[in-house]
# Entry
Amino acid sequence: MTTYYTAADLSEEFSITRRAIRFYETKGLLQSERRGRFMYYDYRQRARLIIILRSKRLGISLESAKHYLALYDDKPDSATRMLYMLHQSRSRLSELREQQIALQENIAELENLEKIAMTDLMACDLNVESSYEEYLNELTEVAAEEPIK
# Structure
């Protein structure tokens, strides 16, 4: 016996909106079956949604996910599908490693700026942390006073 899911079931299970599910359907990533007023998705569509959401979380494009799903539909155990997955994984890993290096450089630069600011503030004979807390409170008050545009 096949289990069917409504868009509400899937949206609750995966913490996404029903609108997102409809979006994936309009992009040809999912297919539903109408029964009366409701659209239903079978276990295969649920599995496809898991792949779509994983792809999205990993930064893989919906177009690439669609291509992967088409390969899966054609022949689930094909070498072509697995090679495509390997290529997508390696490409994304390369991008993320480049971003990681850039982030590490940015973090190091910001930590250096923080040290410079701390040194300069201590030269002003301030209690740095309490002065910083006061500064943050002032920012919060100013932001609360600004009119909403």
Notes: The first strand starts at residue 4 and ends at 6. The CA atoms of residues 36 and 57 lie 33 Å apart.
